Amino acid sequence: MPAALAVAGALIISAPAGASPNPVADPAAQTAQTPLERQVLSQGNGWASEGTGTTGGTAAEDAHVYDVSTKAELLAAFAAAGTQPKIVRVHGTIDANTAPDGSPLTCENYAESTGYSLSQYLQDFDPATYGRGQAPAGPQESARRIAAANQAKNIRWDIPSNTTIVGATPDSGISGAALRINGATNVIVRNLTVRDAADCFPAWDPTDGAEGNWNSEYDLLQVINQATHVWIDHNEFTDAPNLDSSQPLYFGRHYQVHDGAVDVTNGSDLVTMSFNRFADHDKLLLIGSTDSPTRGDPGKLRVTIHHNVFENVGQRAPRVRFGQVDVYNNHFKVTEDSTVPYTYTLGAGFDSHVHAEANAFTLPAGIDAANIIRRFKGTAITTTANAVNGKITDLRGAYNAAAAPVDQLSGDTSWTPVLRTRVHPAQAVPTLLQDSTGPIFTAGGEL
Description:
Mean pLDDT: 92
Number of helices: 8
Radius of gyration: 22 Å
Strand content: 25-35%
Low-confidence stretches: 1-23, 27-31
Helix content: 10-25%
Structural class: alpha/beta
Shape: globular
Distance between the termini: 45 Å
Number of strands: 32
Largest sheet: 10 strands, parallel
């Protein structure tokens, strides 16, 4: 039997009604009698399946199944059901930067009556006159903070416990929102395109690095403050078409308007990310808040990242502190024409425990296997049976061969991942995932 057919046969499922044909789309092996929005995470499918597992809102009564196409409807659905099991089916694209009546809101609207002016901000904190030794302070920085708070109040949305939120069709999505799973438990996010959580008011920090940096506030999705049992599946996360590389240069640095894609921090735990597509984004997945244990991270931050495609992402895929993070059967792809500068993929941070196995890396000339790992005070990482441009490569060995003696990484023998679906050979992963990631399903419900 050809290898591709053998792989497909091992995981073939009956797709939900209206779903795109796809042999490996859902390792949970759901049946056609189980609609997308009623599907649960299967046992053994990553850290989110630990213990009680992750069921989201699949037990929702009919009264708590909502079809939404506007911001007002979405937020009303969250509020109406509270923490009771609920299903929210998103139709079309919901824009976060809108007023209650649905009219669009711009950065200028958020800044109205605050006194903030970007041109004045640039004049006040020009390093040539303000210097580089202290963070901005004064009327324009205060005004910027007020304007930023106006935007945050409008675009920062918390997904409650016991929620399944799904795209009703493959073209459903949320634009401009900073979604959060904030202290919640048992949440499923599937089949959505989540894009462009652009910060209207990035902060200039002249002390950030040798040249200073613009820092933005919002992630596309945050899993924070002891959130637990979260399944993130078949979504797309992207900045396109509003890429940071297209932003103007101020003080010699890009006016960066995006932060992370999906961050898991502040004692959050038991997360599975599967069959997502991450594209055109720089700082991608941060797992772990700081090097300090005071945020509740030690013993938490258990995350599985499998069967995702990462295309033209710059760094943090993921960067880890403290957590036990299983990274397997993903395809990391950098194209020759990428507008996002590549920095590294796997970040070994303080007390991190990353197990990277059978991943595929497709890299252009000029990016060496030694660049895939970067050390941030970490001491160990396990890399097994990964392929670079089709060739099985010892990633840790390549890194250590190029790293200084003080930056060497040992193999991590502290744990062994067990909550997994089938692990496929790394060379099969690009073909396996070619049409199997991102939003591809159709859920029930009509508008």
